Description:
Blueprint: H1 13-27, H2 33-47, H3 55-70, E1 74-78, H4 80-85, H5 87-97, E2 101-103, H6 110-122, E3 128-129, E4 136-138, E5 148-150, E6 159-163, H7 167-175, E7 179-183, H8 190-194, E8 197-199, H9 203-217, H10 222-230, H11 234-252
Parallel strand pairs: 1-2, 1-6, 2-3, 6-7, 7-8
Antiparallel strand pairs: 4-5
Amino acid sequence: MTKIHVPADHPRKDSLDIRERIIEGHEKDIVATAGLLAHGRGEAFDYMIGEQTNELAHMACRAAVAALLSAKHPIISVNGNICALVPRDLVELSELTGAPLEINLFYYRAEREEAIATALRNAGATEILGTHDRPSETIPELSSNRRKVDSEGIAKADVVLVPLEDGDRTEALRKINKYVVTIDLNPMSRTALLSNITIVDNVVRSLPLMVEYAREMRDWSAEQLREIVTGFDNAANLSKALRMMIDYLSGQAGIGPVEEDET
Ligand code: PTJ
């Protein structure tokens, strides 16, 4: 399929360029067909936050980076969508936080694993976990393809970053006592609700932001990092994120911000 060229003055240029990256990723076997649908869902939720990173997402990004930096065995789980959208940021974040990259797919196919590994290598990755030739274990709490994890990666990790995720795995990871960090534009998804830290933002903005925070925070003391992690309240952050969406939409509809319920 021919790649479309989006004119520089198109009012939706950024969004259309990102969509092209996902389509291209699908053609290269990186993105699952269901990943196209997941992306569309993400686009809709991104509208509801004005397609901008807000203060709540900044706070969650800082907490997420602090959690990765203070972990003993952090890991970054890679699926098709995140690989197609921000491969270089994934590699950079991995290097800065010491969290290896592990391919873990819901819609597993050997061709997809290979295409994702190639894309990560092209983006500068030197070590990739989760491939078929690696030692693996299964998470008994999970029945999907994602149950197979790398023995040196998710299996032994204490903190797991799972961007753009399905709820079942988050639940299973929590059951086996992993600290789960996610990026999900839908603050009502099971993943968002079940994670320890949820960044409600588009990965195309939040991954580069996490890289920036990691550069700034990587020499911080364990105590400084711990303070940020323990000071983060995911339920409160999600509730405010949802309220922000409601207010944004009310503003768009010209009906003013929704009043706080005083009961
Ligand atoms: O590559 P695979 O085989 O591992 O499959 C990956 C997908 C994404 C297809 C799989 O994990 C899946 O089906 O996910 P869900 O259940 O559709 O959930 C995806 C969530 O990510 C939804 O809540 C979307 O709103 C959200 N989302 C989509 N695009 C973005 C996003 N969140 C942040 N940034 C985005 N760009």
